[in-house]
Amino acid sequence: MKNPNIPKQNLEDCCTVCGRRDWERGGTYRLSFRQTIYVLRCRNCRTVQRVPRYRFFQVASRSDREAIL
Fold first, then answer.
1. Which residues contact 13 (CB under 8 A, 6 or more apart)?
2. Closest-CA residue to 35 (of 15, 56, 49)
3. Three-state SS for 41?
């Protein structure tokens, strides 16, 4: 049985609001334990998603456009 307290992971890298897979980079920031967080913004509905470095490159490789600028 799955733990209901763990949020469902967005495995398709789609936007949770509009369902599209079209992201642009909104910047980066660092956490106190030196982890870099990338901010992704949906080009369609402007929803913001914050992902760690390894997830950023997974999302970027599956984006609808060729490059996330």
1. 21, 23, 58, 59, 62, 63
2. 56
3. strand
At CB < 8 A and 24+ separation, what contacts does 64-68 make? Answer: 64/20, 64/21, 64/22, 65/22, 68/23, 68/24, 68/25, 68/40
Burial letters for 51-64: b for 16+ Cβ neighbours within 10 Å, e otherwise? Answer: beeebbeebbeebe
Q: What angle do CA 39, 40, 44 make, to 5 degrees?
A: 145
User: Is the dihedral angle over the CA atoms 47, 52, 56, 62 positive or is it negative?
Assistant: negative
- Chain-centre distance for alpha carbon 20: 12
Residues of the chain with pLDDT under 50: 1
pTM above 0.70, yes or no: no
Q: How far apart are CA 41 and CA 53, in angstroms?
A: 15
